[in-house]
From TrEMBL:
Any one of the GO CC terms: membrane
Organism per entry: Coprinopsis marcescibilis (Agaric fungus)
Lineage, broadest ranks: Eukaryota, Fungi, Dikarya, Basidiomycota, Agaricomycotina
Entries under PANTHER family matching the protein: MAJOR FACILITATOR SUPERFAMILY (MFS) PROFILE DOMAIN-CONTAINING PROTEIN, PERMEASE-RELATED
Membrane-topology descriptor: Multi-pass membrane protein
Subcellular compartments: Membrane
An MF annotation (GO) of this entry: transmembrane transporter activity
Listed SUPFAM superfamilies: MFS general substrate transporter
Region (Disordered): 1-21
TM segment ranges: 53-71, 91-113, 120-144, 150-168, 180-201, 213-235, 286-309, 321-340, 347-368, 374-394, 406-427, 439-460
Protein name (record): High-affinity nicotinic acid transporter
């Protein structure tokens, strides 16, 4: 494909049909059947690379999400009494302390990823946090629980940014969100059934002298370690090193990425590049938006069971009712991912989900009927869940080069850890049962994200127009690149 098709001489008035030709031209060098078999054929059809990447990645992320948020379930199942988590802010501290190493180790984790390779890196992370999860089943004090939570945060820190980084290296920019949404949906479904499975585990109470909440950690920790072994056997590496594709398939994948964003070849990560990326306010805007997205997701994960318990439901009813909102979130997440990739727009659809989340928070916080409060939890799940892959795709679409992708992804997900700290400190035990301060803090995050989406849209649109008019040099130092609005 000639470079002229990507030049700034393409005016904004260029018709849609011509724009579509520019997008699909990189694929024209290959047999459509070959691309169809290797990658995809339509919006809802997933192919070889999808099947190799997404199911195992989705399962790993699902157990990561379960392992970091199952504290609320264990609390309801007897841990609060056994470890005296009802004293002061012990529960909030035990929830929050995980996020300190999780936040601080994101950037080092993505740098180590390139040194170790994806499979070894993922295996170490998964087995490490699985061991910490298993250990939580044997703690006898609140302090020991906190130590295990810190170890959990250390090993999970390198996992999620690596996961997102790996997936984005395989696809063109406007193919990313459906894939991120798919593996996130796997985690939503698994996480949605987690309370039901946890309830089944609590029935083991008394077996071998362990309480029900201990069995939750023991069984889930053992499963996580087992999945770590599967990660070593089946997880995909980067396109240039993975063994499950042949050389022709590898070249096709890399050619498509090169034509789309000119970064199929990894560049070296240097201190100067890291500093430059860290000083870029756009990098932090993505991070703050991810904070705003994860904050309600963590709040629901940690507090949905206590909220339902406060409505007068029994422990078993609260655990079982925690699952249905995840089903609505699954549908909503994929719908917004599909429409975002189809329209090649990110910000407008993220804003829609922010408004859904705000509505749900208001309903849960300020209505008195259990049915309407429960409906509000559905809306909060639907609004928050879809924003997680949405922000990651928005960020991935608007950067180039492997070094910037590694560092910016780490910053973004590190700020998600800050969202977890924020959620566990503003949703306080003393505000039970309505958690009004936590609800307002969560809504403030949504309004902040709406503001940042507006600012970024203005900045990106202005830069695109200036480039089309030839008034500035190539955006992101990449000829033909334009920001995704």
């Amino acid at each position: 494909m000639s470079d002229s098709k990507y030049s700034s001489e393409n005016k904004p008035t260029e018709d849609v049909e011509k724009h579509e030709q520019v997008e699909v031209a990189p694929d024209a060098h290959y047999d459509p059947e070959f691309i169809k078999k290797t990658l995809y054929v339509s919006t809802f059809c997933f192919r070889m690379i999808d099947w190799r990447l997404l199911p195992i990645m989705g399962m790993l992320y699902a157990v990561a999400l379960i392992d970091r948020t199952n504290l609320g379930i264990a609390r309801t199942a007897g841990m609060e009494v056994d470890l005296r988590l009802d004293i002061g802010e012990r529960y909030s501290i035990a929830s929050m302390i995980y996020f300190i190493p999780y936040t601080l180790l994101q950037i080092p984790g993505n740098i180590v990823l390139r040194i170790l390779g994806a499979r070894l890196h993922l295996t170490i992370c998964v087995v490490g946090w699985g061991a910490a999860q298993l250990g939580m089943g044997f703690v006898t004090s609140w302090g020991a629980l906190c130590v295990c939570r810190v170890i959990l945060g250390i090993f999970e820190a390198g996992f999620f940014p690596a996961l997102v980084y790996i997936i984005t290296t395989w696809y063109k920019r406007h193919e990313v969100q459906k894939r991120l949404a798919l593996f996130y949906i796997v985690s939503i479904v698994t996480g949605g059934f987690s309370p039901i499975l946890a309830y089944a585990m609590t029935l083991l109470k008394g077996k071998h002298g362990y309480n029900g909440w201990q069995w939750i950690f023991i069984i889930e920790g053992a499963v996580t370690i087992g999945l770590g072994v599967l990660a070593w056997m089946f997880a995909a590496d980067f396109p240039e090193t993975s063994r499950f594709v042949n050389e022709e398939q590898r070249k096709m994948v890399l050619d498509r990425v090169e034509a789309d964003r000119k970064d199929s070849v990894p560049d070296q990560v240097t201190a100067a590049k890291i500093i430059k990326i860290i000083l870029d306010p756009i990098s932090w805007s993505f991070g703050i938006m991810f904070l705003a997205s994860t904050m309600p997701a963590y709040a629901v994960g940690f507090f949905i069971t206590p909220i339902l318990f406060s409505m007068g439901y029994t422990m078993s009813e609260a655990l079982l009712l925690s699952s249905p909102p995840a089903g609505a979130a699954m549908i909503s997440t994929f719908f917004f991912a599909w429409i975002a990739d189809k329209t090649k727009l990110r910000a407008p659809w993220l804003a829609c989900q922010n408004l859904i989340c705000i509505t749900g928070l208001m309903i849960t916080g300020y209505t008195n009927l259990n049915g309407t409060r429960y409906f509000g939890l559905f809306l909060v799940n639907m609004g928050a869940s879809g924003c997680v892959p949405g922000v990651l795709a928005y960020q991935a679409n608007n950067i180039t080069s492997h070094s910037k992708r590694a560092v910016t992804t780490a910053i973004t997900i590190a700020m998600g850890g800050v969202g977890g700290i924020f959620a566990t400190t503003v949703w306080r035990q003393k505000d039970f049962p309505k958690y009004i301060p936590g609800i307002w803090a969560t809504m403030a995050c949504q309004f902040t994200m709406l503001l940042l989406l507006a600012v970024n849209t203005y900045v990106f649109r202005r830069r695109n127009n200036l480039r089309r008019q030839g008034k500035v040099s190539a955006l992101e130092n990449t000829e033909g690149f334009e920001y995704t609005i």
